[in-house]
Protein 1
Amino acid sequence: AQSVTQLGSHVSVSEGALVLLRCNYSSSVPPYLFWYVQYPNQGLQLLLKYTTGATLVKGINGFEAEFKKSETSFHLTKPSAHMSDAAEYFCAVSERGFNKFYFGSGTKLNVKP
Amino acid sequence: DTAVSQTPKYLVTQMGNDKSIKCEQNLGHDTMYWYKQDSKKFLKIMFSYNNKELIINETVPNRFSPKSPDKAHLNLHINSLELGDSAVYFCASSQDVGEISKTGELFFGEGSRLTVL
């Protein structure tokens, strides 16, 4: 089975600063990779995903993530944090050929004015 | 027009009671899921149905029984509720994109917060 590790359950940045949320997965075969965002009292929304092709993927709200096979990582970044980015972020993987998704434990992003 | 809708949004009940949560998706997706999110925000798959057929059952107690009357609906019935069942339950759906690569991102409902007293 897959496992997903998100380093840091809480990350705090100042408005305008770089956002970096870390995600590592365990798999011998590159899976499909996702980042979801959850705002308070809401369901999860897809930010971006990697399936094949270019390893740097861009998502909504200025976020992007890079798939690094050698590091089994899929870290999420945004050059300049905005107050509205404060939310919980989940990394997820699914095995190729299966509709089964594994989620990390989430990282709560706090943005300070 | 809500893509994945689940009701009720909040549910407070006593231990030992039976309750149901309903989910409907209007996206035409083939696969639907139930996830449980605990107080630490950890998301765990409970069930998955593909075209009304159960394909994933992740060691969930028998007290939990999913029912899929058609591929647009996946309901969750819980018998003899326990304190540990308190959580937010999310319904989700995804679309199979073909035989070679079955991956579609998940579309989530807004969640149903269950509190067992």
Note: The radius of gyration of chain B is 14 Å.
Protein 2
Amino acid sequence: ETGVTQTPRHLVMGMTNKKSLKCEQHLGHNAMYWYKQSAKKPLELMFVYNFKEQTENNSVPSRFSPECPNSSHLFLHLHTLQPEDSALYLCASSQDEREIDTQYFGPGTRLTVL
Amino acid sequence: GEDVEQSLFLSVREGDSSVINCTYTDSSSTYLYWYKQEPGAGLQLLTYIFSNMDMKQDQRLTVLLNKKDKHLSLRIADTQTGDSAIYFCAEKSNFGNEKLTFGTGTRLTIIP
């Protein structure tokens, strides 16, 4: 248990569905991250929020929409996804974005797009 | 952009040493890291090395860095079944952008 929780742990959705992934951290951190982990590809940073402000969008398609209402919660809203978006989506947090190397990861949401 | 490469798979007999290799392209890397991802879990920082060091030892773990060849390795002595995991190499550059560049991860399988 790292202090970072993600729900749901597994999600299957059709290409026309809209769903959301949720991440919550209980560590008092101010930076939160979304990563995409695909088989045989490097772990890919998607978004960074620092003190609720988005500081990094790593050329992510607009069908992925992040939301950070406060420093403890991070959402990833999904709509009109493609099968190639199937992956493990990891959330992480750190004290702030300068301490990215000491980030704590959640267990991930395994997403399957049919 | 920066690139970090690793082999995808490694199988090792229990009790032997495991050596996981990584190469990177960014010559301005300041820190290099090894993360461990156990089944069903997120990544956990295992160890790191500063770029002006060539070796770091921490109990069963030894990190070797060859900065000239941009090659990093992680040696796990006396490999145990609990070492089964995916191991990610990552680097942080010196350009003020506090982003980590990760590799694909190497899945370590322990053979009884």
Note: The longest strand of chain A covers residues 18-25.
Protein 3
Amino acid sequence: QSALTQPRSVSGSPGQSVTISCTGTSSDVGGYKYVSWYQQYPGKAPKLMIYDVSERPSGVPDRFSGSKSGNTASLTISGLQTEDEADYYCCSYAGSYSWLFGGGTKLTVL
Amino acid sequence: QVQLVQSGAEVKKPGASVKVSCKASGYTFTSYYMLWVRQAPGQGLEYMGLINPSGGGTSLAQQFQGRVTMTRDTSTSTVYMDLSSLRSDDTAVYFCGRGGGSGMDVWGQGTTVTVSS
């Protein structure tokens, strides 16, 4: 199984919105509602930002939202803040108790 | 509070084995799967496999089958990940994480494993 496809980098200015895509196949992203997104700062453990495609854990700002269309999931961050600058990873259930991660996207807040 | 605490950094020689522990606290240990994920230097996250602490059943990503063993000790709420026949490209930070289908909501702090002769 190949990793899910994410853009290597995205950027935006404070206050703007950015969207990070995550493309898989009908055997993973397209086949299940179990897509999650993680934020990771250098040297730190990942943090769950979105689960089940579009659900936000308690404490995650509502500036973060998730969606899915076909085999592509997306994470949108609105009202960008400097502290949003981090790496973001998508993850999808791929059946038979296996998961796939995306290659990661570096978000730069200009 | 809910937390996962992992064992300390390891340095191993090629061909050796390493065992990383992940101790859970603040929740019912047997109620959640535990997943293992690794991250090589400068690289992305890679799913390794999971263990069901309730019955001990495991599921491993294909690339780790035959080299990884996952076990648990319910008396201490600890899961273990044993990686054998280490190679230089196993050098990575290894994370445990609570969860499963609906995402990994709690993560350990990570354990650095360095494989070097």
Note: Chain B touches chain A at residues 35, 37, 44-47, 50, 59, 61-62, 95, 97, 99, 101-105, 107-110 (CB under 8 Å).
Protein 4
Amino acid sequence: AQSVTQLGSHVSVSEGALVLLRCNYSSSVPPYLFWYVQYPNQGLQLLLKYTSAATLVKGINGFEAEFKKSETSFHLTKPSAHMSDAAEYFCAVSNDYKLSFGAGTTVTVRA
Amino acid sequence: NAGVTQTPKFQVLKTGQSMTLQCAQDMNHEYMSWYRQDPGMGLRLIHYSVGAGITDQGEVPNGYNVSRSTTEDFPLRLLSAAPSQTSVYFCASRKGSDREGEKLFFGSGTQLSVL
């Protein structure tokens, strides 16, 4: 079955600095990959998704992710962090009718 | 447009009690699912449904029952609550199969404590 592993449970960045969240996947078939964000006391919202149309995927709020088959990675980046980016981020991979999530990475942004 | 609505938002139960978490969506989505979220473990799938009358188990189904009598509703039943079921529960829906890359729409969650 397909799965994802998020490297690092917590990431702390300064406002204006690069945000890099790491996700590696395991899949026997070309995967569908997703990044979701969860703000405090809310449900998850889709940031972006990879469905094989393009390896560099742009999402909402200035985030993007690059699919690298050779590295089995789908890392999420944002060039310049904003205070409003403080949240928990989840990488996910599709498994037919099931979406499997990583353990999550909490991002804190320092002023 | 209400989206996915979950009730209640908070619930405290005693061990052995039963209860039903409600989930309703107004987007005519075929697929609905229940996840539980625990610190350091991400979201784990409990049960899911690909349409009215069809349900199946996810990763952690033990202790939970579901039914799907209508397209709109997908209740989650705890038959005899245990402290291990203390968690935050999310209902999510989407239009079709995730093999098409469809995104999930999430409810705002139910925080359940079992004493």
Note: Chain A touches chain B at residues 9, 32, 34, 36, 41-46, 49, 51, 90, 94-104 (CB under 8 Å).
